[in-house]
């Protein structure tokens, strides 16, 4: 008979604890198959990430306010007008240079066509009269040092006489676009996470054990009063 003790699971009822309970199963059943696993994908894994993402968002918000206040760009999406180097700078300041990393998951050219180059008056069959229109897509994953991460796709386009240069530029712009969107996407992660914490969405034993170990309570919620 399989047996496991010292489980860290707790009941949804705060008055009941299973910390010293021994769980037993009969023949043909493996306790490992019954072990709860919790997916932390798409939500902060520690108090550090909540605080640091807050710092990042304050920097982005301050920069965005200056841009929109000038009325120079009109009402465009911030990802279109904020420079990539500025977002990287904010990320370094918020997380530290070694506190985050970027993985390019994939890059692919989704469209490649040719059109006449209207600015050159030469033979229509000449390579000099052809412009290569290339569209590429890229998926990027940004991961913080505690495991918090976000995956976002981006699109890039290039129109150049050289096919090789068009491919290279389109792919580079796709990666840049995805990176910018990934850094900007930490805000909705925090908003959604905080909403779920307030609504007691995370109620399984693993989550309660984890936040007790970390003394993690960014919203000031009392565990004694909540229904976790």
TrEMBL record:
Function in brief: Involved in the repair of double-strand breaks in DNA during vegetative growth via recombination and single-strand annealing. Anneals complementary single-stranded DNA.
Name of the protein in its database record: DNA repair protein RAD59
Organism whose genome encodes this protein: Maudiozyma exigua
Gene3D superfamilies per the UniProt record, alphabetical: DNA repair protein Rad52/59/22
A Pfam family it matches: Rad52_Rad22
Keywords: DNA damage, DNA recombination, DNA repair, Nucleus
PANTHER family in the cross-refs: DNA REPAIR AND RECOMBINATION PROTEIN RAD52, RAD59, DNA REPAIR PROTEIN RAD59
The organism's taxonomic lineage, starting at the top: Eukaryota, Fungi, Dikarya, Ascomycota, Saccharomycotina
An annotated GO BP: double-strand break repair via single-strand annealing
Any one GO cellular component localisation term in the record: nucleus
Family: Belongs to the RAD52 family.
DNA damage listed as a keyword: yes
Record's subunit section: Interacts with RAD51 and RAD52.
Compartments, as annotated in UniProt: Nucleus
């Amino acid at each position: 008979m399989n047996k496991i003790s010292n489980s860290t699971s707790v009941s949804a009822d705060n008055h009941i604890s299973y910390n010293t309970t021994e769980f037993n199963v009969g023949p043909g059943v493996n306790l490992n198959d019954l072990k709860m696993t919790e997916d932390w994908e798409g939500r902060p894994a520690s108090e550090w990430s909540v605080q640091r993402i807050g710092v990042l968002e304050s920097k982005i918000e301050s920069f965005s306010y200056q841009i929109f206040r000038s009325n120079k760009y009109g009402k465009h999406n911030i990802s279109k007008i904020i420079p990539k180097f500025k977002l990287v700078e904010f990320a370094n300041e918020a997380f530290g240079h070694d506190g985050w990393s970027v993985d390019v998951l994939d890059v692919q050219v989704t469209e490649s066509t040719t059109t006449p180059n209207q600015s050159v008056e030469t033979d229509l069959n000449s390579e000099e009269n052809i412009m290569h229109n290339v569209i590429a897509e890229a998926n990027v994953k940004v991961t913080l040092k505690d495991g918090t991460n976000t995956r976002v796709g981006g699109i890039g386009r290039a129109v150049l006489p050289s096919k090789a240069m068009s491919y290279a530029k389109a792919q580079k712009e796709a990666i840049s676009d995805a990176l910018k969107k990934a850094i900007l996407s930490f805000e909705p992660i925090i908003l959604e996470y905080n909403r779920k914490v307030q609504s007691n969405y995370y109620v399984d034993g693993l989550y309660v054990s984890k936040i007790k170990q970390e003394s993690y309570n960014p919203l000031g919620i009392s565990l004694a009063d909540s229904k976790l």
